Amino acid sequence: MIELMILRRENRDAKPCWQRFDYEPQTPDDTLASALTALNAREELRDAEGNPASPIRWECSCLQKKCGTCAMVIDGRPRLACGARLSEFKKTVRVEPLRKFPVIADLMVDRSVMFRNLKELQLWFTAEAKGKDKAMPVAYQSSRCLQCGCCLDVCPNFRPDGKFTGMASAVPMTRVLSQIPETQKKEMTRAYRLHVYEGCGKSLSCRNICPAGLDIDEILLNSNAIAVWKRFLQSAS
Amino acid sequence: MERIKIIGAGLAGLSAAVRLAEMGIHSTLISIQPSERAQSVMAEGGINAALNTMGEDDSPAQHAADTLSAGVDLADPAAVEDLACHAPEILSWLVNLGAPLSRREGRIIQRNFGGQKKKRTAFAHSSTGKVLMTALIDECRKYEASAVVHRLCHHEFLSLSIREDHCEGVWVRDDYTGETFFLPGPVIIASGGINGFFPGMTTGTTSNTGNAAAQLFSQGVAFGNLEFIQYHPTTVRIPEKRMLISEAARGEGGRLFIYRDGKPRYFMEEKYPELGNLMPRDVVSREMFTISRETGEQVWLDMRGLSKKAWKERLEDLREEILYYMAIDPAKDPVPVSPGIHYFMGGIWVDRFHHTNISNLYAAGECACQYHGANRLGGNSTLGAIYGGRVAAQSAAAELGGAFPNVPYEGCSPEKPVSAQHSFQLRDILRDGLGILRDEDGIRKAVEKTGAMPVSANMMEEKRKSFAMAMLLSALERRESRGAHTRADYPQKDDEHFRRTTVVRYTDGAIRLSYERIGTEVHP
Fold first, then answer.
1. Which one of B33, B206, B419 has the shortest CB-CB distance to A63?
2. B93 and A129 in contact (C-beta within 8 Å)?
C-alpha cells in the first residue's frame, strides 16, 4: 500500500489543498501514472479518510516517456508520472503540479508560455537546413526535446515573463543552430546569446533532470561553440 | 473565406496545415494536446522512400509493388503509386527542414524493414517519428507566427454540423474553460487511430480515445475496412499498455525463436527462407500466435547478434527503453515478446484525393482508410500520414469556396466522459471477437454481447457501442482470410467475392454494410 498526497485545486482560482489517497500497486512495475489511472477508474473515488472525491485532473498520452505530457512534481522533483515507479518511494509520495506554470486544475498546468517563447524566438528554418553529416548527432539529440517543462521547473533563472527562455528553448534552438543556413546565422546567434547564453546562471540545476535523458552540458557546449565562440564543435556522442 | 479546420496535430494534421500555408490558405489547427504529445512522436522504425542510396537498384515502382503486395491487393493501386512516387521528394523536403535522418557521406542511410526486398527505410535511431514531428512542428510554427496557421491547443473535437451530406463546420470544446463553440468551414480529420477502443492492449497513446471516430460514424460518415487491425509481432506488456519493440530490431538482425528441447528454434527462418524474420507483420504475428498455441512456448526476440556499432549508432534508444521497462539488456539476453495492437488499417473511408462521403470533409493519417489495404508495411505510416495530409490539404484548397453559415444546422450537446467500466467492457468484447484468429462463432458472440450491453444515458457510450458493432459486422461479413483478418473458418483468400472495400455507414438509425470497388472516387 502506498499513500499518495496530491495537491488538489478545483480550478485556477481555487485555493490548493492536500488530499490523501491509498493505492495498492497491482504489479511491481506500477508507476505513478498507473496509480492515477486506477484511482480515476474507480466507480466512486474516495480519499483515504473515506470522503467522496472528484476525479483527479491530470494529463497523459504515451505512458512511456516519449511525449512529456504527464510531467509533475513528484516528491519535490519534476518528473514524468509514467517514469516514476511506485517501488522507488517509501510509504508516501507527494504529488503536485509543475511550479512555473499557471495551474488549470489539480495536476494540469498551462505550458503555453514555452510554445510562445519558441514562436517569439523564431525557431524555424528560413532557408534549407545545412544537414552536414557531422551535425547529425547534435541535431538528433536536440530534436528529442519533449517540451515537458521539467528543466524550467528547477531553473532558478527562468521566469515565465523573463527574457531568459531556459533549456526548453535552448535545446530546440540547438537543432536549428547545428544546421544553420548562412542567411539565418546572424539573427539566430543573436537570439541565442540574448535569450539563453546571457541569462543562464550556470547553476546546472537542470542537469540530470531531463526525462528524455538529454545531455544538457553537451547541447549547451555545442550551441555556445556555434553562437558564441563561432566554431562548430562536433558532438562526442 | 473561411479557414480550413484541421482536427489533430500529429504528422497528418501538421502536414495538411503546412501544405495549406504554402498555398497561402489559412487554417485552424485543433488538438487536445500540443503536437509534441501526439502519437506520431512515438513512431520508431522509420519512413519509406525509394531513394536508392544503398546500391540495390530500388525504385518507386518496387516500393508501390511491395506496399500493394503486403496489403494483399486491397489498397488502391493508383493511390499507392502516388504515395511511392512522391516519397523521395517528401524525404528531401524533410531533410531541408532539418530532420536529422541518419546519413553517411551526405547520403541518407536506409535499412531493411519487414515485407520489403530492398533497404528502403530511412531512420533516426528508433525515434524517427519524434524527429520528423520536431521538423514539422518548427515549420508549422513559422506559419503560426504570421497567423496563417491558427492553433487551438487544449481543444477537443465534439461533432460536425452536416446538412444533406455537406459539412458546415465543427463543434469544439476548450478543455481549460469548458466553453463549447462552433467553427464554420471545411474540415480535415487527422485524429489518429482508435486505440481507445482497446485500452491497455495497444502500443498507441491514451489521448486517442476513439470518441472522434464514434461521433463521426454516428453522423453518417462512412468507414472502410474496419476489420483490419494490425497486431505488431514484437510488443511487451508494461503498466497500462503495450510497448513496441521496433521492427528495426529485426531489420538490424534480431531473430525470433522458441525453445524446443532446451534449444532455440528459429521458426520464421525455417519456414520463410527468403525474408525470415522480416516477413510482413500480419504473417509474423500469425506464425507467433500459432506456434505459441501449438507448443505452449513463449516466443523470444534474440538481438544478441547485433553489432556494438548497430546498438550505438542505430538502436541506442531502443536498448535503453528495454532496459528501463523490462530490466533486460537486449544485447545480452533475449526478450520475451508477443503480438499487440499497433495500427488500424481501416478508418474513415476516403478516395485517393482524401475525400470522404461527405462534401467539405476530408480525412488523412491513421484515422483514414488509405494506402495500407489489409496490412501495413513498417515505415509506411509516417509516410502515409505526411503524404495523405498534403493531398487532403490540396483537395480542400481546390474545393474551397461558398458560404458557411455561422448558425449551424446541427447543434451540439457535449456528453460526460465515458466511464472506465464501459470502456473495459467494450474492450473485452472486441478483444474476444477481433483477435489475431477469428471465426464466425466468436464474432457472433461478440455481436450478441455488444447488443446486450445495457442502454446508457451517456450518448457517447451508445455511439461507441454502435461503432464497435460496425467493426464486428465488418469482420463477420468478410468470409475469407486476407492480411490482418484471419478467419479459422475461411482460411483462404477469396478474390472473387472479397477483393473489395468493406464500407460501413450509419443511416436512418441502422448500421448498413456495403462493398465498394477498390479505387472508387468521389466527384465533388
1. B206
2. no
Q: What is the CATH number of the domain that holds B311?
A: 3.90.700.10
Which chain A residues touch B95 with a CB distance below 8 Å? 129, 131
Q: Do B205 and A62 touch (CB under 8 A)?
A: yes
Give B276-301 pLDDT, tens digit per residue. 999 999 999 999 999 999 999 999 99
pLDDT digits (tens, 9 = 90+) for B370-425: 999 999 999 999 999 999 999 999 999 999 988 888 889 999 988 889 999 999 99
Q: Where exactly are the structural domains of chain A?
A: 2-109, 112-227
Catalytic residues of B: 281
Pick the CATH number of A2-109 from 1.25.40.10, 3.30.70.330, 3.40.50.10800, 3.10.20.30: 3.10.20.30
pTM score: 0.97
Angle at A102 between CA A98 and CA A103, to 5 degrees: 70
Split into its structural domains, chain B has a count of 2
- Output Rg (C-alpha) for chain B, integer angstroms: 22
> Which chain A residues are closer than 8 Å to B238 by Cβ?
29, 63-64
Q: B139–A40: do the CB atoms touch at under 8 Å?
A: no
Q: Are residues B106 and B13 located together in one domain of the fold?
A: yes
Packed helices B420-433 and B440-452: angle between N→C axes, nearest 10 degrees = 160
User: Smallest Cβ distance to A61: which of B97, B139, B207?
Assistant: B207
CATH at B23 = 3.50.50.60
* Reported ipTM: 0.96
B97–chain A Cβ distance below 8 A for any pair? yes
The fraction of chain A above a pLDDT of 90, given in percent, is 93
**Scanning every residue of chain B, which has its alpha carbon at the shortest distance from the alpha carbon of A126?**
B142
Last-in-domain residue among B314, B339, B364: B339
For residue A128, count CB atoms less than 10 angstroms from its CB and return exposed for 0-12, middle for 13-18, buried for 19 or more: middle
